[in-house]
Specification:
- InterPro entries: HCHO-activating_enzyme (IPR014826), HCHO-activating_enzyme_sf (IPR037075), Ribosomal_Su5_D2-typ_SF (IPR020568).
- It holds the Pfam family Fae.
- Keywords: Lyase.
- Residues 8-171 form the Formaldehyde-activating enzyme domain.
- The chain is an alpha+beta fold.
- It is built from four helices and five strands.
- The protein has helices at 35-42, 78-101, 133-153, 158-163; strands at 7-10, 26-31, 52-54, 66-71, 113-119.
- A five-stranded mixed sheet has the order 1-2-5-4-3, with helices on both faces.
- Helix 2 (78-101) links the parallel strand 4 (66-71) and strand 5.
Amino acid sequence: MSDIWFRTGEATVLAADGQYTDAMPEVLIGSVRGPAGHAFASMMGQVQGHTRMFVVRDLNQQVRPATMMTTKATIHTLEYVDLLGGVVQGAIGDAIVDALAEGILPRDQADELCMIVMVWLDPRCAEDENLDKADLYRTNYEAMKIALERAMTGRPTVDELIANRKSVKHYALDGVVEY
């Protein structure tokens, strides 16, 4: 039985110039027997506008640990669904498998853990005639690997957060709050 009950991580990887492919996954990792497992099972139905799906690398290639992904933005078009269930899902799946191979995720607990991933896919991607799918893959792959590592290592630590409290601020606070 896994001793990993409830770990969280997030990361942001920015798009190439002129693209809307920023990736910002948020991940919950935990035992299938604990609160993460309960939340995972509760997500087995669909909610209008926020598709939920197992992460698969391709047909018949569901990743381990079992991972459910959903969107942070409301889905309005089939083009959006195609990108979410295609490039984004593939990138996240590849990152998970590589995290297992690299020891970021414990291979011996792959069937005892589950994960929930909330992903950001900018709605403008589905409308962009010049969408760079390679950049969409890159940002989601890189961000997912970082989020997994942060979840498994507890980063940033409380000490890191306190140390950078006056030097790091949310981008939306520029001109709003001065440190």
